[in-house]
Design brief:
alpha+beta, Aminopeptidase, eight-stranded mixed β-sheet, five-stranded antiparallel β-sheet, 5 helices, 15 strands, 24% helix
């Protein structure tokens, strides 16, 4: 691993997940990580955008909990099966990450529709295409039209969902849910076990969906290890 900087702690900012809370993160810059090196970081709660690696380190708070799914044990619930069935005509392809006009369109529409914010194409490309670990891109198409895309990083034990964006025009397909099962299947077919979904914040309603998948595990910051969800202090 080529470290471009040593880990440091960022200044506190307003928490984007919990009202009246502050958010502090440790971060560093690196490049040229192989699957094993990236896996070590992933399994210790680190995430990344471009060369920027980060994990939360908020004083007195451990509410940002890394979450992952055991793809070999993943089973859809009744409502999730209906989503899978409804999306049967949506085709998922895997491609080498490469910026394009249609990818930018989907991301721009997603940002505007879901979060009410304008996006900058240069920032978009630096965030998702300045890849310093093994990566791939998933594209979801309906009648050849790109309606959603995902960015996956590859470790020796699994794949990490860096980000997923969909065009709100096609929200009726619940493509976010569909993508979890499609991408988890991709992990399984690769012979790996874990599908990492970033951080779950128990008190943040917008993140509730992450805990709705059978077979997920949570990272225990105190024990510094992954545990079944039902054994985690945040769930007990």
């Amino acid at each position: 691993m080529k470290m471009l900087s040593e880990p440091v702690t960022a200044a506190a900012v307003e928490c984007p997940y919990l009202p009246e809370s502050i958010f502090v993160q440790d971060y560093f810059f690196a490049m040229d990580l192989d699957e094993h090196e990236y896996g070590v970081l992933l399994n210790a709660g680190w995430r990344r955008f471009g060369k920027y690696f980060f994990r939360p380190n908020c004083p007195g708070c451990r509410e940002c909990i890394p979450i992952r799914i055991d793809v070999w044990a993943l089973t859809p619930t009744g409502s999730q099966r209906r989503v899978i069935s409804r999306g049967k005509n949506i085709r998922m392809e895997t491609v080498t990450p490469a910026a394009s006009d249609e990818a930018w369109r989907v991301y721009r529409n997603h940002s505007a529709g879901q979060f009410g914010r304008e996006s900058n194409r240069k920032d978009f490309e630096q965030t998702f295409y300045d890849n310093v670990v093994p990566s791939l891109q998933t594209e979801f198409r309906l009648e050849d039209k790109l309606i959603a895309l995902g960015f996956l990083d590859i470790s020796d034990e699994g794949m990490s969902s860096v980000y997923f964006a969909f065009d709100p025009e096609w929200a009726k397909y619940s493509i976010g849910i569909l993508s979890v099962f499609r991408e988890a299947e991709l992990v399984r077919l690769s012979g790996k076990r874990w599908y990492y979904m970033g951080y779950w914040v128990p008190e943040c309603q917008s993140m509730d969906y992450k805990a709705n998948y059978i077979s997920h595990q949570l990272y225990d910051w105190e024990l510094k290890q992954w545990v079944p969800a039902e054994e985690h202090p945040a769930v007990k």
